[in-house]
Amino acid sequence: MSHAQRHSSIGIHGLHQHEGAHNIKRIRLLRRARWAALGVLLVLGAGAALVMTERAAQAKALAASTQENAKVHVYVVSPRPGRGQQTLQLPGSLQGYIETPIYARSSGYVKQWFKDIGARVNKGDLLAEIATGEIEQQLAEARANRAQVQSNLQLARTSFERWQGLRARDAVSQQELDERQNTLKLVQANLAASEAVVQRLELQLSYNRIVAPFSGVVTKRNIDVGSLVDAGNGGAPKLLFTLSQTDVLRLYVSAPQSFAPRIKAGQEAQVTLSELPGQTFTGKVVRTAGAIDPATRTLQVEINLPNPDGKLLPGSYVQVALQAAGADKPLLTVPNNGLLFRPEGTLVATVVDGKVQLKKVTLGRDLGVRIEIQSGLSPQDKLIINPPDSLAEGDAVVASDAPVPANNKEGGKDGAGKDAKPDTKPATTPEAPAKAERSAS
Length: 441
Prior knowledge:
Elements: H1 3-10, H2 15-70, E1 72-77, E2 80-81, E3 86-103, E4 108-113, E5 120-121, E6 126-131, H3 133-168, H4 174-206, E7 209-211, E8 216-221, E9 228-229, E10 239-256, E11 268-272, E12 281-293, E13 298-306, E14 317-324, E15 332-335, E16 339-342, E17 345-352, E18 355-360, E19 362-366, E20 370-375, E21 383-385, E22 397-401, H5 432-440
């Protein structure tokens, strides 16, 4: 029996109408829930799609940023030829063309001196006298000995002549005549020796007069009346005077080995002193040593400097400017901030088709902010300045020309005529600090 029949038999009617209405409402609720769930799913899907799209865009932007950050931005410059002539500044000290310390040749006490420091003397002028009583006594004794020998010589000559006459009459033997002749020769030799002693003492006595060996200025006097001096130049206390010729001064400077081939005799040299500002004195290179000193790797250069008015003083510290002639083909020069010092040697970093190429170079002279390159570089190369230490062969870089300072638009030199250091300060763009930071890393 069905439910409807059972309900009918017991008097319950209309339940099927209520059940149908209830089912309709349930169906409607289910449909609404289904549509709501579908809407939620659509919203979640749209959100997920939006998130994924945004993440993909961010990943693409990050990849582009990473690729951009991987690039190294550098400044490049081109090597340029050096100047044909270089001015070489060297220190030196003036000295007299002739500087002579004067010592005594006779021992004794200083009797009198006549010239003091700063005195100008001529050749042969008397500087001092020395009391040489002992030498005078020795000279008197030598003269007496000479007179005695002269008397003996006269006796020996007379005796020889007498015996020579006796031998002619065969009154004496030849041996006796030979003895008289030998005696005569011996006395003649003694006379010559006595004469030499007298001349030596006379010459030594003449040294009691200290005279100037040349014209000049007395720069030192180390004696006074009564000072005891010894003959010779065995020590500083025996030094009497120092005489210097100052009408022409002599100057020695040491030129670096790199300049040695460019300095020749006859070149002019400009000499300046700090105590005489604005004044320049012109000298001339008279000779060079012709060899490099192995201890200092320098070439000694001698310069003569006329000084007719005596304005320049011997011993003064001076600065010498030499115009060193340039080489037949001037060498290339690069900024000194473009060098890399690696274990394999001195390198420069160049840019070829956006890639770094390291080149080994041979350095020449250091010109201050620039350095000569003897080999390893060509004028067409693009040299990276301020290269980071981490830079390696084959690195990708973005190269741009180094900006030139406003006061260095032409010639690449500063106001003093010297090579100016390139301005490597990055341009003021929003990306410049980040690029500079990446380049430094």
